[in-house]
Amino acid sequence: MNIKLSKPLRILVNYLLVPLLIFWLLFSIYHQIAQQQNLKQAWLNIAHSFTSEDWWKLWIVILLVIVNYGLEAKKWQLLITEVQTITFWKSYKAVLSGQSFAFNTVNNVGEYVGRIAHLNEGKRLKAISVTLVGSISQFIVTLFMGISGLIYMRIYILDTTHFIVGINKFWIDGLIYALSAGTILLLLVFYEIAWITKLLEKVPFIHKLSFFIINVEHFTKNKLTFILFLSFVRYMVFVLQYIILMRLFKVDIETITIGWMVCVMFLVLAIIPSIAMAELGIRGEISKQLFGLLSTNVLGITFSAILIWFINRVLPALAGSLMLAGIKLFKSKNL
Q: Which of 174, 154, 106 is nearest to 257 (CA)?
């Protein structure tokens, strides 16, 4: 269902509500940083991190972006084969282009537009359904790892840390059970997506739209498993980036705990509707709330979140906009 907002409402959302949300989130983060103990020393530690013998860690994080989007490009190349055969490089360019479109849309919806722009006319709308399968695989991994992170948090943090306020174990348990049930259901849908597609095609009003989803019928379980594996490896690259940066900025939390808390953070980010521009504030606030339970180094936590956002979202979006240069989206009425 397409919900069209009136022009005044779009202006209100885009030019007033979103900027206010971003301002409020960034001010909240600034307020917390300003109240940090030994703030001057914390700033010196951050500055020293960029010039110390550990500076190479930042370059590792940047290089991991190439790996990250390389995995996503391989995944999309495999998925899109059902619609059109493309090279790995063309898939890579499409994935980066998707980031440039996703930057100003809720929950990266615009990513599909950027990707299919690199396909031949007549193939683009068919590509949406197979691209959606890739998104589902990444969401399944995010749910599974996020639930695992919640379990770790429930056992090793909530049961051993007494100064945490406002986190009720009962609600955490309920959330774990609810998300687990949802993940199992989504996993079943994912592996039976070919059968479900064939079933949906028998529904009269959906049958008219079979043009968009028919390519999904050809996915085998082996192929879907490999797509899920690529999604998992990509997810672990994200986690590794966070661990490296928090180590670089001297966030005094055990490495394994950082990893699982990052999983919880990604789960929250996946559930909360947001646009990439506002995500900086949201990501910073969530990072501060979660990791702030275990460390007083608010500045190190915040800098990690800001750099991850800039490296993984802004740089690929800029690169993607260059990839789109010269592409004519609609040469004719054929999509």
A: 154
